[in-house]
Structure formats: structure tokens, C-alpha cells
Amino acid sequence: MTLAALPRGPSALLILAGLALLVDLRIAVLLTLWAIFWAANAALVRHGGRAADLAAPILFGVTLLVLWEATVRLFDVPTVILPAPSLIAGAIASNLPILWADFVQTVLKGALTGWLIGCGAAIGAALLVARSDLLRRGLLPVGNFVAALPIVGTAPILVMWFGFGWESKAAVVVVMVFFPVLVNTVAGLSDNTAMQRDLMRTYGATPGQTLRHLRLQSALPFIFNGLKIATTLALIGAIVAEFFGSPTVGMGFRISTEVGRLNLPMVWASITVAALVGSLSYGLIAMLEKRMTFWHPSQRSRR
């Protein structure tokens, strides 16, 4: 029998499930569930269309949750090792006021404020760096050095400088997001040819018009790449900074406190909220990018 003739996909999983019955019923149940969801997801992908594009990742996420729940229940995994998704959902439902207060403190005050200041300052600095060879040679190497500094080293220092409130978390976020956005924006502003610049001069365009209609337009895909990177860095920076001192509220404070109490469902509840916020933020930036850079080949190829 050749390799091409061997069963693959859900069929192979069902065969493995049948063999697993001889060893452990629990493994057979997990393989059977996996085969069922795999077949459903494969059918969605074959169907195609916009609805299938939206439903396929949702079904894949549901598959992971079901397998997670089944694994924990079937193998009696201790809660302190890995709580079941149902326990995490229960922790979220019963602690909504606490999680909302943590969200406001960490996301709206620390992460969002730092992201706005850091990204705005980075784009403004990039406009200056793109016009000055001296700044390009001097600032970018310094930026690479600062970006390589570990957050566990810089966060305590900034907390000592700015206090235990959200201001110190915003400062950490500014440091984390500034240079990735700066580097991407500088690269984007340089992403135009001499022929394009000569054409703008032929049209009698002023330096401001060239910046607006040529250089900034060509830089938009790069800027959005930097902004998407910064969304995840901002949330990570704000949460980690709270480990080194914060009021009795915040996602980082909640995670560190509940770990000490071995309240793992609450820890995973905070992690889940952070993951959802990060994914939503990334998705919003990606949607804005699609609307503003519809002319770019990378966007046209996704239609």
C-alpha cells in the first residue's frame, strides 16, 4: 500500500479511535470528537463563501474548547493545573464587576493612553527622521537598543518614577510601542522611487503635498503593521507593569494575586479577558487598515 492510499483526515482519526478503544476509552472519545469537528470544519472550507470564512475559525475555536473540556473532565485534571472552560466561564460570569474594574484600569487607562501617546509620538518623530539623515543615523540605533531592553528591567524603574497609578503603566507602554511604530513608519516613508518623486516635482507639488499624497500614502501599510504590533505590546506592557506595583485593581494585579491564592479559574478569567481585548483591538486596526489601504495589492488579493 502506498502512502497516497492511506486514509487521512477524519477517517484516519476514526481508525485511531477504534484502535484506542483497545487501550483507553477516554482517548477514543477524544479522537472521535476531534474527527467529528474536523469533518465539519472541512465541509465548511469546501463550501467556501464569506459565511464559511467567518464560521470556520469560530468552529475551530469551539473544537478546541470542547476538546479542552473533555480532556479535563475525562482525565480528572486538577483545577490548579488546568481548569475546565466551564469553570473559567463561571468565574467570568460571577466576577463581572471586578473584571470590569480591572479592564478600565489596565486597558482604558494604562494600555490605551500609552498606545495613543507612543504611536502618535512615533509617527511624528518618523516624519522628522525621514527628513534628516543625522536623526536617521543617530535615533534609529538608539531605538533598537531601547527596544531590546527587557520589560522586567524597565518596568520597575518606570513604576518608581511615575508611581503606582496607571501613569507608570502608560509610560511602560509608551516605551514599548514607540520604536516599533517609528521603525515601520520610517521604512514606509522611504518606500517610494526616485521616478515617483520626480513626477511629483514635475507636477509642481510642494514638499507638503509630496508628503501627503505620495510618502504618507506609501507608508500607510507600514504604519498599520506597526500599529497592529503595538496593540499587543501595549496590553502586555500594561499587564506586566502591574506586577511591580499597582493599586488593588488591574489585570496584572489580579493575576498575581489570584495565583498566590491558587484561584486558577479567576486567573484564567483575567487571561481570557486580556486575550479577547487584544484580539478585538487587533481586528479593529486590521479593519481600519483595509478601508484606508484598499488600493494596496495585499488588500486586493484578499477579496
How does this structure look, described?
With 303 residues, this protein is mostly helical. It has two domains: 75 residues; 206 residues, Orthogonal Bundle (MetI-like fold), CATH 1.10.3720.10. It contains 13 helices and no strands. Helix 7 packs across helix 8. The protein is flat and about 75 Å long. The N terminus is likely disordered.
Question: How would you state the average pLDDT, rounded?
Answer: 80
Whole-number total of structural domains? 2
* Topology order in helix (H) and strand (E) letters: HHHHHHHHHHHHH
DSSP E strands, number? 0
Largest sheet: none
CATH class of the largest domain equals Mainly Alpha
Radius of gyration: 25 Å
Q: Which band does the percent of strand residues land in?
A: under 5%
SSE arrangement:
Blueprint: H1 10-20, H2 25-47, H3 49-74, H4 85-94, H5 96-131, H6 133-147, H7 151-162, H8 166-189, H9 194-202, H10 207-241, H11 251-260, H12 264-292, H13 297-300
Question: What characteristics describe this protein?
Answer:
single chain; 303 residues; mainly alpha; MetI-like fold; 0% strand
Short description:
With 303 residues, this protein is an all-alpha fold. It has helices at residues 10-20, 25-47, 49-74, 85-94, 96-131, 133-147, 151-162, 166-189, 194-202, 207-241, 251-260, 264-292, 297-300.
